[in-house]
Structures are given as C-alpha cells and as structure tokens.
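Marked as duplicate of an earlier ticket. Keeping the data here for the record.
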Amino acid sequence: MAALVLCGALAACATAPDGATRRRPAADFASVRTGVEADLAEHRYPGAAFAIARRDKVLDIEAVGLADTQTRSPVRIDSIFQQMSMTKPVTAVAVMILVQDGKLDLDAPVSKVLPEFQGFGPAGAPPLTLRHLLTHTSGIGFGSLPFAPSTLEQRVHATAMAKRTVPAGSAWAYSGVEGADVAARVVEVVAGEPYDAFVRRKIFSPLGMKDTGYSLNVEQKGRLVGLYEAKASALTPAKPMFPPLTYPSGGAGLYSTVGDYLRLAQMLANDGALDGVRILKPASVAEIRRAQIPAGFPGLSPGLDYGLMVRRIGDPVAAGSPLPAGAYGWSGAYGTHFWVDPTTGLAAVWMISLSNAGGAGSPDALTFEKRVTQACQRNRRCGQ
C-alpha cells in the first residue's frame, strides 16, 4: 500500500484521487517504511504513522496501512491516535513552564499548594514534592483508586485521602495516572485555570498542535484510528483496556496526531523553542532530560535513568536499547512512542493502535528505534 505523507523538499508529490497527498517516501528512510510494510503483511498491526526530525527540520513523516480494517480506510498523517501515557511528558512541560516563571518549586512540598497532602504517606515520611511525582518516586503507585471521579479535583482529593505505606523518595514505582494527576492539579491551582485550558493555551496552541486535546469534535472523531488486538497473526477489534477518563488527566487521556506530537518532540530537541516560539527555557529542557535518580536506586530497571516524566537511556547495553546514552522519551499503552537524542537533536515519533501493544516494553516501538537508528547510520542528515 502506498504511504500517505506530507509533502516537502524530500520527495516528489502528487494528488491522489481521494484527495489525500501521496509521495514517494524519503529515500533516506525507505528502509523504515519497508520494515513497517513487512510488519503489516504479518498482521502485527493494521497501520502505523511515524515521523523523524532533526531539531526544526522534518526529515520524514509517513502513514502506512489501515485505520479501519472493515472500511479499509487508510491511516493518514492527520489520523488521530489515543496517546494514553504519552500524556505524561506534556504534564512535565506544563510544570516546568510554571517553574521557570518562578511560580512553582520542584522540591517544595505539594501541600503548600494542595493542603490535603499535609502529612501524606506513612509516619516520618518526607514531604511529597513535584519532583517525586514527575519521577515516579512518590510512593503513590498505580491503579489503587477503584472509582471514576468526574473532575481532576475529585481524583486528586481521593488520592490524598488514601493511605500510603511507601515513603516518597524511597523507590521507583510507576504511577500510571494518580501521581501525574496530582502534578496536573498543582498546575491547575497555581495557574488559576482548568488544566486542559492551560496546556492548550501554553503548549498546544503556540506549537500549532491543532489536533491535540482531551476531547474530539465530530470531524476529528472521523479521523480516530480504531483499536485492535494482535494475536496469532490475526487482528481483531478490541475494547479499551482502561475506562475512559471524564476529566483532563495529567497521566493519560490526550488525543493527537503523529505530526502534532512531533512538534512537541521537536520543541524538546530544539532546547525549548520551535519556529520562533519559545515554550521552555533551555535550562528547563535540560532539567526534564537530566538523570534525576541515581544508579542502583530501588525499582530502577538496568541501564535506565529517569528524567521528569521521561525514560532516559543511561547504559544502552544494559538497557538493551539501540539509542545512545542520554536519549529520552516515553510511550503509551496502545503503542504510541517517541524519543529525543539531545546530542544530535534527532526526534522520532511512532504511532500504532493496539490494545496489547505493550506500552513501554512494546516490541514494535523497539523495532522502530532500531530501524531509525540503522537508517540514520546511512543518513548523515540525522546527525548534522
């Protein structure tokens, strides 16, 4: 199947009968698309969108395969994917906007903003801070609140009231929603506006991320990619693994396109600015990508460090990663994935929609990393 892509200087373009823009894939990354097409033939996933950039220059952006296996509608560059935990890096950016403005301190007790967290955790535990929340060392953990709140405030209040037995700062333990929600609520209170309004005003709108948000209009719903399960070389429609969120969460819930999310990744790769718009100061980006947790910290996987809501490669060999030391990024439960290499300024985004993709351990995300890395070894534009 021909790839649907954005046009630019990379390749010749033509208008297809269905009105979509088609072009030959960038020759430098043809091997990446060929690999994706091989995966499609094996029914690993119905379709995928991916993008590769170096700082402010898009090197390649493509969509291959199907968004809906029944209607046979193709994945397009403007197809919308559920981002799941790829919401979390947005929360880190939101927090750092207020930190650089002098309105928040990563190491101040959260209870200064949210009094209900006074004395949070077991007796004698250190005060809970934003740094704990953004590095998954808060002690909050994952999925311990079995109720569906209607607002972010309700979710965070319930988190504060729940008893915790792990002191903040004592171990790394993934907090899928609750920890990030506390950080988002801090932003909401300090900014004096709803969290979704803040990220739209301070991040999405300035970066031109017009298809990124917590809800979809009628037209956007028509571009939402279907969710599937891959099993025994067959693809079947799947039900969501997680209940829908009814509030703007710091940990999940965003929708976006490959091109939109690439804008966020490019901003990070470009030290906080893109196309003349500055979102973060270089020092704020450096703080996001800095190794926040010492090697050997309880709960850490071999070879991995953690920044603020991002995984960071500390030792590529120990981590089993094709990416260099210092590269960082995040993933979503349904197969979305991105990373940034601060040394070369390379940024890449990968999007599929599988209920059993594997999240941070997704084999397809790892394969994409390997394919891009191999293509970049033959493509000097990746590192210049």
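See parent ticket for discussion. The chain has two domains: 4-80+204-383, 89-196.
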